[in-house]
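Issue 218. Parser rejects a valid record. Input:
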Amino acid sequence: MVVVSGVDGFIGSALACRLRALGVAVTGLGREVDLTQPECTAGLSGVRAIIHLAAHSSVTESYQNPHRYFQDNYLATLNLLELARLQKARFILAGSYVYGNPQYLPVDERHPTAAFNPYAASKLMSEALCSAYHQNFGVPVTILRIFNVFGPGQRGSLLLPTILSGLDAGRVSLGERTPRRDFVYVDDVTDAFVAALKWDGAAYEIFNIGSGRSISVEEVVENIRKFSGNAFEVHYEKPPRPTEIPDVRADIRKAEEVLGWKARVDFETGIQKILDTRKCE
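Output the parser choked on:
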């Protein structure tokens, strides 16, 4: 059995569907389970792997409520690692971008980490816990540091959902037009978790999961405008974020060489898939 936390989230729901389609027995831990409590895993047995996706993940909110981010993200990881220890199971963590302002591009896994906001700091704390459980108890750990995931059904205040909301309103307000990000399609991300689950490595390993290509905010807007055919207004009027990073691009060679994984859906195709899905809603 594979336990998936955050099963009702954007990535978690897609991953659970994918695993079940492959015939994998999945037990999902969703919003109804308080992962910060030690008893959250009571009654679970026969666990061979845990995929930990659940986390508070808004950078903006992490500044407003850092206690919630540090406490909840840390304790949820701790409790699921303890389950992995007791069940002698593999642990796969959904990491995030923790490199700060890149010293070089593309960013590989050896790049120094930087807790440049409370959310990133909480994810680094989770990684430190994973390292401790591997070193002290031999828990096999794989961390997938996911760059900017996107796809149909994504919600919240992230760039793409914000722009797509502008399709309906006819107007969208954004910050700077020049920052560049590495966007990776949700199906490619679920493929990465499947590859990590199939991998028989017993070590503590970290892999970047991205596309290896960076795209500016303005290019994102123009792609949505092009493929939707909608002439919505865009105003770059929000003040720049104090920790804004000008360019991010993942070095994904390690994931390709070790896991046999690579991104297959390019950004333009991903945007078309999102827009096609919206037409059917």
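Fixed in the parser; the record now loads. Residues 2-154+184-212+249-265 form a domain with the Rossmann fold fold (CATH 3.40.50.720).
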